[in-house]
Structure prediction request, 341 residues.
Amino acid sequence: MSTLSNAYEALLRNRHLVTGRPVLVGIRDANLLNHWPDGGLAITDHFGVFEQLQQVANWQSVFGTPANGPVSDPCNTAVVFLPKAREELTFRLRLAASLLKPGGHLLLIGEKREGIAGAVKQLKAIAPESEKMDSARHCQVWLGKPDQADTDFDEAAWVSWHTVDSAGISLEVAGLPGIFSDGRLDEGTALLLASLDTVAPRGPVLDFACGAGVMGAWLQKRWGLAVDGVDVQAQAVTCAGLTYDRAKVSGVILPSDGLNGVTGRYQTIITNPPFHSGVATDTSMTEDFLKQAAKHLNPGGELRLVANGFLPYPRLIKQYIGNCRVLMKTPRFSVYSANRH
Prediction:
């Protein structure tokens, strides 16, 4: 049986505050829905969680925002779980408020170590009379009623654009709150692109954990290769599609938890994988990916991965793919390469 997080336990302790049909925004554990058998609306930006939510009776599930799936009915209570990125919180709060019936209430729940105390200012910008209802399980629970004059929500209005330049190639890249490295080219991706600038990788190419689509779009501009992209996060899937469209490049962008949704085989897989879950370091996603990657690489196909040097990836790459080489290195990052056994 799954052990619920502190934030979910705090919600259950205050379930009397959830009246009528609820909407849960930012849910990461489908087991929570079993405590509301009458159902409601569950929204997640994690595709693996979305697949689990779809199996729960009486609940409607949405991946990302209602722009990616219509909502059947407005709700009485919206529960917002605190995201890691502060800029994503206002995004979630506005989304939640737009799904409420007139007079509906908004609950914000998060752990103290995640910054719930500082997040209250953002809540009060939408629901000025919000009150703290409980402090338990290292969490705080806040309740407010949103200003009904400001509850419209359009995901497209939240999209931003920034320019990325690498090796003489300039790209316009889409961003949404909560996406990795929004508004800049991160150091790891820049190093990986530098390693791909001198010799063209062999296609077809897959960009795992593609984020906003920077590497796939850049590779196509540099070498004329069609690059497919896959990511678990809804914002990434949306932004990568927009980046590809703006750059006029080709390739399929798929939502997938790991490589579970990928059916093709590739000559090259590139990745700058995440290593955080919430605020904690978590390399399990990358280890799961490496276990799956071999069956999606053609014989002799290459995996190329960039990561912080302190992470234990060389051993895992050798175990699951083949002999691991270091192509480039900085004080913080290394680019690893291996060919399938």
